[in-house]
Amino acid sequence: GFCTNLLLSQTPEHILAQTNNKTEILCELKKEHAGVYWYRWSQERQNFEFLVFSNPLGKALYGANISQDKFSVHGVSSHTSYSLHVSHLHASDNGTYYCSISQSSQLLLGSGTRLGVVDVLPLPPKTTQAPLFKKPLWCVTKSKAAGKKGACSPLVWVPLAASVLVLLLSLVPAAYRLHRLRRRLWLRVHRQ
């Protein structure tokens, strides 16, 4: 096994955005790669969807039915930092977004960014002291979890399993074509 967050750092973990606005997700790579893939897991539709691939030269390859007006990837000159921009936000954009790189015939996924799109953003809490105390506690908890050797978050394994499922499902049409070809040959042989 492997921990993908050793090679990819994805921020932020959660985004709550308003309909018709835009947002940005950042993916930092530990070293330069041939490019970054972006995927979205939709809990509602139960599917893992390829959005866009962007290489260091800025060329982009979009998934089927993916709007170039909605999604764009911006990289920096170091080729180790990529950001996915999502505009014209709508409820259908809800989901968990993952940046990914290909290494040794494996897709390594980032930790994921959960995006929620709402018509009206909730009001911030009125207390000013609470966030100051919550943040250091959260950081301590996270560093303890990161200290455990070989411990991977379910946020890493769930999308990994989903990507394997997507790859297996992509083999279904090929298997169907092979089945039809065998059937045709069998019919041809038995007609003679």
Task: Provide tags for this entry.
single chain; 192 residues; Immunoglobulin-like; seven-stranded mixed beta sheet
Topology:
Elements: E1 8-11, E2 14-18, E3 23-29, E4 36-42, E5 47-54, E6 60-62, E7 71-75, E8 81-86, E9 95-103, E10 106-109, E11 113-118, H1 130-147, H2 154-170, H3 172-191
Parallel strand pairs: 2-11
Antiparallel strand pairs: 1-3, 3-8, 4-5, 4-9, 5-6, 7-8, 9-10, 9-11
Strand content: 25-35%
Provide the residue-averaged pLDDT: 79
Tally of distinct domains: 2
Largest sheet: 7 strands, mixed
Rg calculated over all Cα atoms: 21 Å
- From the N-terminal CA to the C-terminal CA, the straight-line distance is 54 Å
DSSP E strands, number: 11
Could you state the order of secondary-structure elements as H and E?
Answer: EEEEEEEEEEEHHH
CATH architecture of the largest domain: Sandwich
Question: Strand pairing plus helix content: what structural class?
Answer: alpha+beta
CATH topology tier name of the largest domain: Immunoglobulin-like
CATH superfamily heading of the largest domain: Immunoglobulins
Structure annotation, total helices: 3
Question: What is the 3D form?
Answer: globular
Determine and state the CATH class of the largest domain: Mainly Beta
Low-confidence stretches: 130-151
Organism: Thalassarche chlororhynchos
Subcellular location: Membrane
Pfam family, one: V-set
Protein name: CD8B protein
